[in-house]
Structure formats: structure tokens, C-alpha cells
User: Fold these one by one.
Assistant:
Number 1:
Amino acid sequence: MRARLAALAALLLTGTAVPAASAATSADGTAAAEPDTEPPRVLVWGGTYGFRHPSITTGERTMLELAQATGEFSVTVTENPADLSMATLRDYDALMWISTTGKAPITEQQRDEVMRWSACGGGNLGIHAVLDSEYGWPEHAQLFGAQFDSHPHGAGAPPARVVVEQPSDPTVAGWSDADSFPMRDEYYRWRGARGVPGISLPRDLPGTEVLLSLDETSVADGVQEGDQPYEDNQPIAWKRTYGDGRVFYNNMGHNESTWSVPAFQLSLVNAIEWLAGVRPDPECLDADAPLPDGPQPPAAEPRQIGKPCPIPAMRETNATEDFRAVHTTDTQALNGGIPGNFAWGAQTWVVDLSPSRARTADVTIDLDWSLPTDDYDLSVTTGWGYYGSDNPVGTAREQVVIDDVPHCAILQVAGDNMFAPSMSGTTATIDVAPDPARPPAPGTGPRARRE
């Protein structure tokens, strides 16, 4: 393995790329060969419906060149949202999302087909701003394991230091000769990753293995002392599973220069090899089997039942107006924003069930705005996963219902404006319906006072 990696790294460093078109295949091309003999087939999706990164074109070209130079896989590039469907995906082993900001104009059926293909063994490779997209589509967030919050260390800042957490993993082999390395790029903060007890995503999301993380002491001057600090060693690259499929994500790739770094290119090639270790199962693709379960709330901490929830200290951020406990209902006006995929308004609530001594509650969250021509999507981040809603334009309301929310759970609620010409802002309302209170578990109730 080491010899192959060294040879491949040398090839990527010294090889001359052929014209990009020679590596492409047609989305409806020839019949596929047996998956155990044919190199993995990769569909590169670069469609954007928010800010378009110039590096998308660079990334598309780089993937075509890598396919030609290495022979390790074949590539088809598309920016046609119709290709996000089972009719196209069944001919591919991996789907690569390159900074696909905004909300793609695809149907609910297409979403279900992307998820079914993924759960049946399809591999997903996400780059940079794929996590600044598809707000309100909770399965997308659950698939990749994170959502964008902000990027205080910008693209033009000096290189930050990236920590190699899994040096033996082939997907980071190009950086494994040292404990860390400097890299100039734009680094995201993640929703829920605020150092608040109870939420630390994506690191704590089940099935996630962090490969690279950010040394927050190395970011641009003033960031850690400002209102958008990074958490300790926040994840930068990771891999995870979704059903029978595999997922690899790397937050790098904003800067066009990143795509020419040999270690980054080697990471992409080896990530595709890992993703293709499982190929889509044709029988599964055509079956009507249920998709993987959504996020499952944890049990409440028994010793905390009936006690008021602590409100953790939390810094103000561009996406946080307040942070407070809610017992039964609360409403918060969220700020407006700039049209075009900017998440401006958010509210973080602690579900405090101490007055009812309930262990869990059913929680309903509504997002409302004044003009039906605006389009906001509702995203909810919890310590155990993601929820969301994105009704069509004209509805002027989104709603998420979460059952069995445990006492003292933290919910981060965001109104993401996809297309809101008025910039009028939104109102978030939370209603908490405690489940019937249960007697405290033995040994957890108040002690009897001795006379």
C-alpha cells in the first residue's frame, strides 16, 4: 500500500494532464461493466444556486485530469439537476459534490432517490460548500454530518495549521509524514459546534471518524477573541456511513490553489477508492425498502429530572440572537439577511422540563414571515442530528416537529433565506408539550430529611 501511495503521489506531482474532455463519459453512456472489474464511475455535481465559487470549475477540471492521469476512476461532470435522480445515479459508484451552494431545483422524489442510492451503497464525496447548501433538507445534513455556520478564517488569511488525527488512513496519506501541516484555505465553523455542552457536531455524530481537524490557535489574528471562535480542534475532514453507503467530506477546496496541492489530489483519489469499496446494490436500488432511520433523541439524564437546566455561557455570533430556556412556549424575532443563501437569523433554546418533571417532550417549531414571495427554510440542529423543512415559495411558513426531546436538550433553530427580496426577517416559535411526568428512578429523587 505504501509503495502504491508513493507512486501515485509522484504521478500526481509530476504527471502532465491531458485535455479534460478526454476523461469525460456521458451521463447516459454505454452499459456498465461488472463493478468488480471496472474502475469506479464518479458523477461530479457542480450545480450552484447561491454563491458560486470560482474553484468549482477548477475542481471539475482537476477531477477530469486526475481520472485521465491515474486511470483509477472515470469521471462525468454535470451541472444539470435532472441528473440527481435514480435514472442517472444507478450508472455511478460515487457522487461528488463540489461547493454546491444554495438549494437545487429538484423534486421530493429526486431527494428520496439520492438518499436511496446512497443507502444502497452509493458513495458521496463532499467538498467545502456542499455543507452551505440544501438547508431544510434534513437527510442531506444527516448524510454529510454538518452544516455551515460561518467562516471567520477567510480564504485570504495566512495558512492555518491542520492536525492529522488518523495518519494511517489512506485518505490523508499525503499529509501523514507529520502531526500537522499548514494550509491556506477558508475554514468553516459548524452549527452546533460551539463548545456548548450537549452539542458537538459532527465529531459526536454516530458513525463519524474525524481525519483532519483545525488547530484553532493558528487561525487569523483576532478570530478566537472575537464573536466567532472555533471550537477546540474542530473537524475539517471526516468519513462516515449512511446505510450501506460511504461518505467522505473535506472542508478544503474554497481556494483554487488548493486543487493543485499534490496531497489534496491524492486525498481525492484515495477517497474515491475507499468510497468504491462498496458499490451500489442493483436489487436494493429497485426495492421499496425503508431508508435509514432519522436522528434518534437520547434518553434524558435521570439525575437531572425535575431540576432546572443550566444555561451554558455562549458567545454572541452572527447567527445567534439569544440563548435561553423554554418550558412551554417562546417566540423570537430573527434578523433579516441578504438574498442568496445566507443564514442570518437563529435562536438557541434549552428545553427545560423541570416544572412538569417530565423526562421528554414533543416539540413543534414554526418559522413564519410576512411576505409569501419570500422563501426561508427552517433548519434545526440538535446534539443527536438534524431536522428541517423547506416548503415551496408562497407558503410563508415552515414547521418541524420533534418527538421525545429529552429534558435539557439544546436546539439551535435557524431561518435560512434562499430567496427573500424583502429581507423582512422571520419569527421562530417553539411549543413544548411535556410527556406525562413519570416517577423519578430509584435513588434519583430528593433525599428524605432526617429529624
Number 2:
Amino acid sequence: MMVHMGFELTEQIERHLIGDQIAWLTTVTPSGWPAPRPVWFVWDGSAIHVYSLTSGAKQRHIAANDKVAVHFDSGHGGGDIVVISGRAEVVPGAPPPSRLPGLLDKYAPAIEYMGREPGWYDEEYSVALRVTPERAWTIP
């Protein structure tokens, strides 16, 4: 059974926002095509923070259309579905990724596994995006 709702932070949604390593951020291209991309993210209790490639297309997409979707991988057998829709914005003057609370706690092992340093992430992914959830749908 699919459950549609305005944005209410349920246990299922919060578990994905806190525990998942990868989310899929779908922006809309200026020509109207959906553009899903896997992203690293941090949930701060009210917004989802993502850093985009310095030369990435996400910020151009958001400038043309701020409506986005964020979804997570399903659970075993196709259940445990969470899709969040909301509005995204570029955050000028945001701290670099390594100074966003919680980001290095979550992704330092992945950065190290890639043979990189946190400064690499700061340089390559310097555009801060904030997604404010407006609604969600889930499948238990």
C-alpha cells in the first residue's frame, strides 16, 4: 500500500535520511527532462544538504526549476520505498563540505577508500545545495 502525505518525518523516512549513504537527487533540466544523480547528503533535521560538482549541472537545473525529488534505494524485495519532493536552492556562502556538521563523520571512510583527502571534496564539490522537503510518499 502506497502512502501519500505532506512532509511528515516518520520513523521510516528518518531512518533513510540518517542511515543511508547514497540518495538519488532528481533535478529537472531546462528542457524539462528529469536528471537523477546519486549524491552524498546530510540531513540536519529540517533540510537535506548536498554538495554539487563545481562545474556540475545541478545548480543550472535548480536555477531554471527548483522542484526536485530525493529517493533512496528500496529494501529487500522492493519494499521500504521513500520518495521526498521539495524545493532546492543553491546556498551562497555555505561552508565547504568538510565543515558541514556531520558530513565527514558520514563520508570520511569513503573519501579515504577513494585515496583522497577531505580537501579534494572541498575543491571538487564546492556548490552547496539545500533541499527543503514539502511532501513524501512511502511504501512500507
Number 3:
Amino acid sequence: MDDPARMLRDLFDAAVEAADPALCVPRFLSDLSALSEKGRFVVVGAGKASAAMARAVEDCWTGDPDNLSGLVVTRYGCGVPCDHIEIVEAAHPVPDANGLEAAGRILEMAQSLSADDTMLCLISGGGSALLSLPAEGIAFEDKQAVNGALLRSGATIGDMNCVRKHLSAIKGGRLAQAASPGRVISLLISDVPGDDPAVIASGPTVADATTAADAIAVLEKFSIEVPDNVTAWLSREEAETPKPGEAVFKNADTRMIARPQGSLEAAAEKANELGLAPLILGDAIEGEARDIATEHAQLALSVAAGDGPVKLPAVLLSGGEVTVTITGNGRGGANAEYLLALALALEGVEGIYAIACDTDGIDGSEDNAGAVIGPETLPRAKEAELDLGAYLKDNDAFSFFEALGDLVVTGPTLTNVNDFRAILVLH
């Protein structure tokens, strides 16, 4: 255990590998090629993993290659070359024109299906922003503004997606509605607490139990001002999404192919190999990043003192999606902010190290996956004249860890099962 940083990175890599589309997708394709003999087989999708999922579909396709076509939209930098399925890259987390055009084309493909045709939908985290097609009467710029305000508000992914669904022409089950009476099969990689298919990428192919009134309540809860046309749309009957039990979902089949818990379990297996006792705290942890960090610091200190629920050496593993209410002007995502707060709460105690990264390789809007900390973080920051508390107050975790050289940079991982955190307690 001479290299704690290496051990933490090994745990993160194990978590990411467990959700690799090349491994996950083939297990759910055994019965799909035969469907192409009955009609057209169209592949569509959206999300940070969607291009890699499309590549996996092509690699194990055994049907007629001329009957395999489609389009998926992914984040810039997450594209993977495909032979039959078109890959479009677009902006995330704030939508752009590429995503708008791709979403419109995907909706047209769905609308063209007959009862003999099959649409395979490849859905992963990030798909909500990438599959952006405003509802009737809502300008694209208005939807961009609302989305940006939600991202800054500290709203949970469930709250954000509730609003997104009701401002969309394609999300909240509307894509399945458009494809009816065609067959719809969805392969999902979950990046949300609870693995609710209706929340992942705002559920374009599954029924939506939330209402337009719920969307209005979210906007009011976070004091988000919206244009008059958005308010007017949400008051219309047409704003309601297709609900559970409606006939449009009769031929819809949803399959969850990777989830955060699976990645945490893979990391736990790796921990055992490294001689560590793993403790999974949960795969659906939500809340303000700095608050969760304070709670985890207290638990780690208890474990270090021999009073915790696991024996040393140990590693505390957790997933989910912590949030940041932005009040400063700095840079950085929720994982880096979590680590700033964790380092502050641990006060440089010996023997405790941590990593926090987004499994998609992108923490917020920066180019890092996350960062690492250890007992030397505070002394090194002091030597470099970096005021950790000031950086935390300014939501500037990226700049802090960049100055220390402690960012974790992986590039796009081509999957997404949300945040991964590991606290290593050696003694």
C-alpha cells in the first residue's frame, strides 16, 4: 500500500470498466437481429455513451447489415466511428443547434415506423441536454436559458428532468409515442439515483408520471424566471406527457444494461484484491456536495479511530449525484467541490486519501474527471499560498486542484454511471 493514489485510481478504473458499453450491450442483443427480418431496424439514441453503444450494436449485429441504420447524438468528444449508424456530436450540458437538429431527425425517424418496424433506442446520461427539441411555441433559446438556470440552481436531476420533459417535443415518453405502432426497445445505462428509466435522459421512451404542474412547482421552488411563452405552454393540456398505462407503450420494452450499483460492486471486488475492506455507502447519494463531504469525513474519521462499521485498511465507496448551488465565480464540478470540502473537514489527518470523479470523465464543464486528496493536501496548499476555504467559497475547486497538480484527467470514458467516490482509510 505504498501508493494510495494509484489504488484509488485502480478502484475508479474498475468502476468505469464495469459500465463499458462494449461489455454491457452484447448481453442484451441476442434476440434483436431476428427482429430485422420482419421490417426495418432503426437505431437511435442520445447520451455520452450512445456512440459507444452504437458501435457495440454494430460489432455484434448478425442480421442483414443493409437493414441496420439510424442516428445517435452524443457529447462533443464522445463520438465513435460507426459504419451504418450516423453519429452526431452536440453540446452538453447546455444544448446547441447540433443537438436540436439531431433530435428533430430522430423524431422524424420514429414517426416513419410501421407496425412491422423496430426502433432500438440507446439511452445514457447526458441524453436530456443532447436530445433537445422544444415543444410547440417555445423558442430554442428559451429552452437553453431555462436549462442553464436549472443547472445553476442546485436542483436535483429529477427536478431538472421534470421541467425538461414538459418543455420537450421528444422527451417524457414522446419518442415512443411518435414511434407507435412500431416496436420500441430501449437499452439504458443509468446515471441517476434510483435507476428510474423515466429520469434517465428524461425518459424519451418510457411513461412519465410527473405533470406540468410538477414542472411549474420546480421552477417556483428554485425561483427560476421563465419567458411568458413557457408559462403559457405549461398551462396547456398538450404540455402533459404520455402517462403509465397508455396504449403507446404497449410495444415498448426497456432494458437496464448498466447501473451505478454494478460499478460500485466492481470497485469493491477490486478493493478486496488490493487487501482493502470495502464498504458501499450507497449508489444514490444526493445532496449539497459540501454537506455530503462533511458527513463522509466524520465517518472516515470514525473508521480511522476504530469505531466505524469496517476494519482497517478500508475503503468507503459511494455513488449518486451530489449538487452544487453556485454562488461564486469559480470553475469546477461537483466532484472537485466535494473533495475541497472533504479536505477541509479532514484537516490533514494521516492515513486518509480520497478520489471523486464523474464516470463519464467530465466533472461539470471542465476537462477533468475529478481530483484526489490526501493528508498532504492542506500543507501543500499552505505552502503554495492557496486558501482552501476561499476557493470553496468561490466554487473554484478546479483552479485549486489544477494549481496542486491533483486533477484526475481521463478524457471521455464513453460511458456514464454518475459520480464515483472512494475514501481510503489506511490507519
Number 4:
Amino acid sequence: MLASLSLGTSYSTQHNAAVLAPVLILGVPLYDTFFVMLLRYRKGLSPFRGSKDHFALRLEKMGMTRTQIVYIAIEASILLGLCAWLTTRIWFWWAVLVYAIVIAAAYGVGYWLAQVKVDE
């Protein structure tokens, strides 16, 4: 469903920064993929090896229920979808600011989640 939403319109009609809106729409699965790849790379492991590095498993390790984790993922997808829509409607430099805020938030969440110890 997220992939079809990301292909649903023309993003470059407002300005060139809006072309990155599909990346925001697909933000949660892309984030998890790159988060896991980075953590595995830092440990010297293959990114194709299975492990418990995914953000959902880290949240579960912190004591959250699966229902709570699903709601967090849904809320993050909605928020990123709204940010994507917003970047297609606002002035270029405001869109760049939105992207910068999202990147900073993703970095902060990634740093926080990386502190959770997982079983190998």
C-alpha cells in the first residue's frame, strides 16, 4: 500500500525537493532496512545475515507489546506521509527544512535504539 501511495502522483510540479517525497512515504521500511544494515556493518557482519537488529525487535526488547509496536509503526508512517505531502505543497527551503528535521529525528531514534542490547 505504501509503494502504491508513493507512485500515485507527480512530485516535481511544485519544486525539485518534492521528488524525495516517496522516500518519506516509504520511510518506515527504508529506515528499518538501512538501520539494520548499518548496525550489522558496524559489527563486521554481513547485511544479509539474519539477526535481531530490527527496530521492532529492539522495541519489544525494551518491554513494549507487539500491539504498541504496530501502533508506533503506523503513527510513524502517517507522520512521514504527512511530511511527504507537506513537502509537495510548501516553498523549496521549507521542504529542505522538513527533510532535515526528519533526518535528525531518524538519527536520534537510531542512536537511541542502537543502545538496546540484543541477543545474537
